Amino acid sequence: MAKGYWVVLVDVTDPESYPRYLEAWSEAFHKYKPKYLVRGGRFETPEGEMKARKIVLEFESYEQAVECYHSPEYQAAAKLRHAYANSDLVIVEGHE
Questions:
Q1: For residue 24, which of 71, 65, 78 has the smallest C-alpha distance?
Q2: Are 17 and 90 in contact (CB under 8 A)?
Q3: How far from chain centre, in Å, is Cα 16?
Q4: CA-CA distance, 62 to 84, in Å (whole number)?
Q5: In what helix (H) or strand (E) does residue 31 lie, and over which residues does it extend?
Q6: Does the N terminus or the C terminus of the chain have fewer Cβ atoms within 10 A?
Q7: Counting runs of H as helices and runs of E as strands, what totals does the chain give?
Q8: Could you tell me which of 25, 17, 3 has the C-alpha nearest to residue 95?
Q9: What is the Cα–Cα distance from 26 to 43, expressed in whole angstroms?
Q10: Is the pTM of this model over 0.85?
Q11: Domains in the chain, CATH or no CATH each
Q12: Model pLDDT for residues 41-53, shown as the tens digit of each residue
């Protein structure tokens, strides 16, 4: 079964409130147990535009990655992310 990935790019607009999103996200994180592959670190942008934060999360399957995103736990957290940051999130299926 192919793994699933979230690729997330974030510019935090309200750094004082953003930790509320991280706290809310922890409920979905503990339920779905993704693995952080990228969280910060050095980067280069040879083409296009880039946001300040880059995150790649690996899930056991593409279906699990989609389920996590649509879960009530994550949707509650996503409302906070939308309030405190500008972000892009894509869910991608990996190779088997």
A1: 78
A2: no
A3: 19
A4: 27
A5: helix 18-32
A6: C
A7: 3, 4
A8: 3
A9: 26
A10: yes
A11: 4-42+51-93 (3.30.70.100)
A12: 899 999 998 999 9
